[in-house]
Amino acid sequence: MSRFRRGGKIVDRTGFRNEKEESGIPQGLIKTARKSGQLNLSNKGLTEVPQCVWRINLDTPEEAHQNLSFDAADRWWEQTDLTKLILASNRLHCLSEDIKLLPALTVLDVHDNQLTSLPHAIGTLDNLQKLHASHNKLKELPEEIWSLRKLKTLYLQHNELESIPEGIENLTYLEELELSNNQLVEIPGSFGKLTNLVKLNLSNNKLTSLPVEICSMKSLRQLDCTSNQLEDVPPELAGMVSLEQLFLRHNKLCHLPEFPSCKLLKKGTQELLKFLRSRMQDQTICSSEEESTRKTAVNSETAMCLPSESKINLRAIMELKALEYSEKQATVVPDELFAAVGNSPIYSVNFSKNQLTEVPSRIVELKNTVNDVNLGFNKLQNMSLELCMLQKLTHLDLRNNLLTALPAEMEALVQLRTVTLSFNRFKTFPDVLYRMSTIEVILISNNQIRTIDPFQLKLLDKLATLDLQNNDLMQIPPELGNCTSLKVLTLDGNPFRNPRAAVIAKGTSAVLEYLRSRIPT
């Protein structure tokens, strides 16, 4: 039973609107959330969170006035406390202090909004294990956040944080901390007390040094300090036996201690090749930066100015084979960018994190070479036919847009292996994906998909990863268990009742085996 009473008194509903009057939230979602304990309101265009969300476990549901039968199929009195709330990719500027009315929350996802602060009442969420607040406008954190003693994952990347106040050492269960792409100039020594931390990302900040206390993180496996202003690192880092990956590219380092525990050479050929390629790119970028520093005037052979006053480094285009125009908040990609390409082959295109409402038509000029296109975090409502003409395309990222469908012409992408469609507005699984025999990875979480066709999915014999998290799947067809090529199947955050959470938690193999056991004979 949920909490309809507090302190023996019925909670007063005076002044609150009837649920039917709440705008923007389908009552079917609220009803389902009361049963599943999970509510996904991503990509709903919300500028504020309706009161019915905060009071979902307090107010008597509407169906209570319509059906009082104890043998009814909908037992409204057996509702579950809300444990997972997803408010990502909306237009929220703030969260109400009424968040305290959801004390059972274990997951709160508010990323990709316009939040400038977090409510002080967030400190009352004693059960919270994951807080995802990236891609907002947070300048500071409430001190109450350090009261979340059960927190394991904290994502704060892509905000405007200038400092991390003392108190973070209270998050003793924290395992993953993302602070990249902020304005941090220093890290407090109290970080060293986060002894369960496994992954720490500090990249793309303004750090000039690391505290020696960071070496006390006995569980840390990955430390990313890429693109800061570090002039040295504590030699004690070399003694961190758990550290496997250390990223220090794009800093001001002159020397490094030896790191005997870093296991790059043990991670196989692909990881080694990836590292060597990154080193080649770093050298090219560094030489370009040094050259631009030496010269007071930009050489017209290496750079040109766009209307936005950003520069195109022709050397990067020619040697890195990459076309980069991301995080500009631009509504169009300037023609000058494509003109700068000339006859140089381009393998990678990144136009993410802008305000594009359509795919640049000139992208078709790259059709003979480009294999990786990132158009995520824009405002695309349609996938243009020009994209369908990129015959060498193997990776396509369209996450965080406004897509509701994919064109049938996409079937022409005969080399496509990975497609990312998370955080869009799909209500049905795109039919064209069923016909793409080369596809290996489909990431389509955080949409509104209600059904999938297991018989057509089975025909995709190369499909290894299928991410369907946080959709509206009411049931998982048992025949999905026959898709034996799947190595990763994620279904969390859907309103289905079977498989149960205990089965899901055992992983993909257990889920597929369970589903096969349910196929009628």
Radius of gyration: 25 Å
* Cα end-to-end separation: 37 Å
Strand content: 5-15%
Low-confidence residue ranges: 1-22, 69-73, 263-276, 279-310
Helix proportion range: 10-25%
Total strand count, please? Answer: 21
Biggest sheet strand order reads 3-4-5-6-7-8-9-10-11
Order of helices and strands: EEHEHEEEEEEEEHEEHEHEEEEEHEEHH
Approximate shape: globular
Class computed from helices, strands and strand pairing: little secondary structure
The chain-level mean pLDDT equals: 82
Largest sheet: 9 strands, parallel
Number of helices: 8
In short:
The chain has 521 residues and is largely without helices or strands.
What order do the helices and strands come in, and which of them pair?
Layout lengths: L4 E2 L2 E2 L16 H10 L1 E3 L10 H4 L29 E3 L20 E3 L20 E3 L20 E3 L20 E3 L20 E3 L20 E3 L20 E3 L21 H26 L8 E3 L5 E3 H7 L1 E3 L10 H5 L8 E3 L21 E3 L20 E3 L20 E3 L20 E3 L10 H5 L6 E3 L20 E3 L10 H4 L3 H10 L4
Parallel strand pairs: 3-4, 4-5, 5-6, 6-7, 7-8, 8-9, 9-10, 10-11, 14-15, 15-16, 16-17, 17-18, 18-19, 19-20, 20-21
Antiparallel strand pairs: 1-2, 12-13
Helix pairs in contact: 3-4
What does this 3D model show about the protein?
With 521 residues, the chain is mostly loops. The chain has helices spanning 27-36, 51-54, 269-294, 314-320, 335-339, 454-458, 501-504, 508-517, and strands at 5-6, 9-10, 38-40, 84-86, 107-109, 130-132, 153-155, 176-178, 199-201, 222-224, 245-247, 303-305, 311-313, 322-324, 348-350, 372-374, 395-397, 418-420, 441-443, 465-467, 488-490. The chain has a 9-stranded parallel sheet with strand order 3-4-5-6-7-8-9-10-11. Strands 14-15-16-17-18-19-20-21 form an 8-stranded parallel sheet. A two-stranded antiparallel sheet has the order 1-2. Helix 6 links the parallel strand 19 and strand 20. The radius of gyration is 25 Å and the shape is globular. It starts with a strand and ends with a helix.
